[in-house]
Design a protein that fits this description.
Layout (H helix, E strand, L loop, with lengths): L2 H10 L1 H21 L4 E8 L17 H15 L2 H11 L5 H11 L5 H11 L1 E5 L4 E8 L2 H51 L1
Antiparallel strand pairs: 1-3, 2-3
Helix pairs in contact: 4-6, 4-7
């Protein structure tokens, strides 16, 4: 088939072509008008693995597998229920009458409203990264302000959770040393009393 024959075939089917093009444009227009608007807010988090207690501090170069593993771990923390519950608490979403009504309708009042809200937030959350140390946290909602608030709250909750995860072992160790110190003081006082 040469170009001239192709153009003749196209001219013969011109009516069908125009009708299909019109139907496609009309369907796209109707869909964009009828479908609800969705707004997405994205927060970029820079994750620095240099300060972590890992082999990367000992080795001069960070292995690609280690970096990907670390980034995946951070993404799992962001999408964890612990972080989502912290977002619900920080934004006081459980106190909203509309959230309570939706919880009663959807869950029938069974379970915790905070857990239900955390699950619903996680369904609208998307976390992704490329080969860099930046994690993109995107939240989608029908309200643009709510999208931005929740995305920022997830970033803040992630930072707070990471701080808690780093400080908690040190706090527990200090508590253990305090208990040991109390025991040693009691033993010292007993020994001094006997002396």
């Amino acid at each position: 088939m040469n170009v001239h024959q192709f153009l003749l075939a196209l001219r013969a089917r011109f009516g069908v072509f125009v009708m299909l093009l019109t139907a496609t444009v009309l369907a796209a227009t109707v869909a964009s008008v009828l479908l609800p608007k969705t707004y997405r807010a994205t927060v970029s988090l820079l994750v620095d693995a240099k300060n972590e207690q890992s082999l990367s501090n000992v080795l001069p170069l960070i292995l690609p597998q280690e970096k990907l593993s670390y980034l995946q771990t951070q993404m799992d923390i962001i999408t964890s229920k612990r972080v989502a519950r912290k977002v619900v608490q920080d934004l006081k979403l459980a106190a909203s009458p509309s959230a309570r009504a939706a919880f009663e309708k959807a869950a029938g009042g069974y379970g915790s409203i905070e857990d239900w809200l955390a699950e619903s937030l996680l369904t609208k959350l998307k976390v992704e990264t490329s080969q860099s140390s930046i994690i993109q946290v995107t939240f989608s909602s029908a309200d643009p302000r709510q999208s931005a608030e929740v995305a920022n709250a997830f970033a803040k909750a992630y930072v707070d959770t990471m701080l808690e995860l780093r400080v908690e072992p040190t706090r527990q160790a200090a508590q253990w040393y305090d208990e040991q110190l109390k025991t040693l003081r009691v033993n010292l006082e007993d020994a001094q009393a006997k002396l």
